[in-house]
Amino acid sequence: MTTSADITLTPSGAPAPEAFLEVRDLKVQFATDDGVVKAVDGLSFGLERGQTLGIVGESGSGKSVTSLSIMGLHKGGSVSMSGEIWLDGQELISASKEEVRRLRGSKAAMIFQDPLSSMHPFYPVGEQIVEAYRVHHDVPAKQARQRAIDMLARAGIPQPERRVDDYPHQFSGGMRQRAMIAMALVNNPSLLIADEPTTALDVTVQAQILDLIRDLQVEFGSAVIIITHDLGVVAELADDILVMYAGRCMEYDRAQKVFTAPEHPYTWGLLASMPRLDREVRDRLKPIDGTPPSLINLPTGCPFHPRCPYLGRDGIPCTTVDPHLPRHVTAGVACHIPHTDRIRTFSEEVLPTL
Amino acid sequence: MVAYIIRRVFAAILLLFVISLATFAIFFLVPRLAGATPQDLASRYVGKTANQEQIAVMTQKLGFDDPIIVQYGRFVKGLFVGADYSTGPTTEHCPAPCFGYSFITQNPVWPDLVDRLGVTLSLAAGAALIWLVVGVAVGVLSALRKGSFFDRAAMGIALAGVSLPIFFTGLLSLSIFSYTLHWFPPGGSYTPITENPGLWAYDLVLPWVTLAFLYAAGYARLTRAGMLETMNEDYIRTARAKGLPERTVVVKHGLRSALTPILTIFGLDLGLLLGGAILTESTFSLPGIGKYAVDAVRNNDLPKVLGVVMLGAFFIVLANLIVDILYAVVDPRVRLS
Questions:
Q1: Is residue A292 domain-shared with residue A218, that is, in the same domain?
Q2: Residue whose C-alpha is closest to residue B273's, from B308, B312, B221
Q3: Which helix (H) or strand (E) holds B85?
Q4: Chain A: residue nearest B242 by CA?
Q5: Which of A33, A186, A230, B311 is most deeply packed, by most CB within 10 A?
């Protein structure tokens, strides 16, 4: 258990933390012709083995950038990163490219959104899995191939001995994602990052893939980060939830808490825009008004204030003061509205409309 | 896969047939439609001073009186089994593939073509090797260091390479490296590879480099654009996420995809060149197919032109066929459709 409201982290420069994965005050900025894009702006969280963290937010909220930072996959040049990323006692931002490369795929692996475009169209699926395995294991080709077949079988692909030589375009969408999962898990990674793993799939296949991720997580005991804009996905899997907006953490807590007693108006908005079977069909889904802000020119004060329906209450400095979470607190709500007011507003005004 | 290859081969043969039909029509049907008589054609063989009788004999011998379909049939037959030309007492046999006789020299066209093919083949193959290796290498490096000094310099030179015609770069290189510095032999030097491979290569260095410069420039730009596109693909990110070394990511995952369109262009370019590298051969006075074609056109020597056109068409169709088949080997997705 990493997170409950009272955990604080040691300041920067302190010895390696005890958590398996710990991100401290991560900032990722891209220099572009139009200005500096603050894709991630002071994000902190932690995660233990066997636990699942769901990172939720709209497009462009910095979810994927965060995960790519952990994997060290940002192309050099225009990107600048600061903060700390501790993975199993090793700090990644200050580590050399070669060190991070060795971790990639072995200790930390990733599943991507679109399994068709994420696999090389010219190589058989099995060969791509074998390649992932042999980079980190010095084994004969035959043994690696057997390993690939085993992984495909574990990922639920029927007749893996035959399908191992098929090309990605010969697989269905769900099968491809299963193959991607097999490829990601081939080296027994202790951290698995799934970036919108079900977005490109049929609804019927989505649940299967989520089940598969959960089963394999139990089997391998890995830590999992699920990145999604779909609260339904994280409701299924996550132990903790981190709600991101404009590259920042808006709300971070146990999943149970975020779903039953969310405190941030942005989280309320996300919940209201989620379709639910137990709701009257004639009710329309409520989108959050407005659009996400430009990450080059963030609004002053709370970045969500231009879209926040609870703006302008007595004496609350939403438009001027940034309600950034305290630097080393990894659970909480970045909102100026007092705690008791938020609880009351949610139960009286928001809950009845969900 | 086998069905795919068979389909492509049939398509190629059909295409060659259509080309032969069209070419033959242009050379023999169009003049007739424009009002030329069979005797006009025959008169080209016998010289300006010939009398009516000689012309009539020649018309008879070459069968210009026959309907155009019969003449085409005889032309195709000549290509496959050879043709016999009867002048009454004697019969001349033109062995297959028979493209007829030159108006001017009265020589059969085919042996001339074979003679010159060696030169064109030597020129094209050597140049192709150079431009492929240099063009692709420069393109990849440029793409990986986009915006760097190397990239800008390479792309600037490439722009010059694409823009400058062979007869400029060729003459310039001859004037500098041959006539001034005397590093390489002057234009017109050619030694068959069977006689002296070393001298063969030495003689061809300037034409190779000049020709390759033009093509390498285009290939560098193409490769650069292709690499920039593929290196942004999702599967490149996946390859990196696996922890592959950057070199493997670039070559095995990036370049493999970026090379596919290059392969198409390469096949076409090479096929086109084998039908005669006209400008290069003229600039360096190399006795290849291209120079042969220029001489033929200049002298209005129709059988020669017809031969060159058919040979060129054959190489282009063949190159396309090979590219199509290679494509299926390279890109597994092609095999299905």
A1: yes
A2: B312
A3: strand B83-86
A4: A105
A5: A186
What ipTM was estimated for this complex?
Answer: 0.85
With tokens 């909480």, the residue in question is A332
Of B234, B245, B331, the CB nearest to A112: B234
pTM of the model: 0.81
Q: Give me the residue label for tokens 């996905």.
A: A233
- Cβ distance A112 to B237 less than 8 Å, yes or no, reads yes
Secondary structure letter of residue B186 according to DSSP:
P
Q: Which domains does chain B have, with CATH numbers?
A: 2-94 (no CATH), 110-336 (1.10.3720.10)
Output the pLDDT for position A162: 93
- pLDDT at residue number A2: 39
pLDDT tens for each residue of A68-97: 999 988 766 678 898 889 998 888 888 888
Say yes or no for a CB contact (<8 Å) between A104 and B242.
Answer: yes
Shortest CA distance from A193: residue in chain B: B241
Q: Are A55 and A26 in contact (CB under 8 A)?
A: no
Task: Please list the ranges in chain A whose pLDDT falls under 50.
Answer: 1-13
What is the domain extent for residue A131?
A: 117-188
Largest CA distance in chain B: 85
In angstroms, rounded to a whole number, what is the distance separating the alpha carbons of residues B188 and A59?
Answer: 66
In a shared domain, residues A285 and A346: yes
3-state secondary structure chain A: CCCCCCCECCCCCCCCCCCCEEEEEEEEEEEECCEEEEEEEEEEEEECCCCEEEEECCCCCCHHHHHHHHHCCCCCCCEEEEEEEEECCEECCCCCHHHHHHHECCCEEEECCCCCCCCCCCCCHHHHHHHHHHHHCCCCHHHHHHHHHHHHHHCCCCCHHHHCCCCHHHCCHHHHHHHHHHHHHCCCCCEEEEECCCCCCCHHHHHHHHHHHHHHHHHHCCEEEEEECCHHHHHHHCCEEEEEECCEEEEEEEHHHHHHCCCCHHHHHHHHCCCCCCCCCCCCCCCCCCCCCCCCCCCCCCCCHHHCCCCCCCCCCCCCCCCCCCCCECCEECCCCCHHHHHHHHHHHHHHHC
Distance CA B242, CA A128 (A): 10
At A47, list the tokens.
Answer: 């995660």
Domain match, A307 and A286 both: yes
Nearest to A113, CA basis, from A26, A189, A209: A209
The last residue of one of the domains, among A188, A216, A234, is A188
In this predicted structure, what is the pLDDT of residue A190?
A: 92
pLDDT at A8: 42
Q: Which of A309, A313, A249 is nearest to A55 (CA)?
A: A249
- For the stretch B28-43, pLDDT in tens is 888 888 887 887 777 7
The number of distinct structural domains making up chain A is 2
Region for residue A143 given its phi and psi (left: phi exceeds 0; alpha: psi -120 to 50; beta: otherwise): alpha
Q: Judge: A118–B253 Cβ closer than 8 Å, yes or no.
A: no
Q: What is the dihedral of CA B31, B37, B42, B47, to 10 degrees?
A: -90
CA pair distance B73, B93, nearest whole angstrom? 17
The count of CB pairs under 8 A between chains A and B is: 69
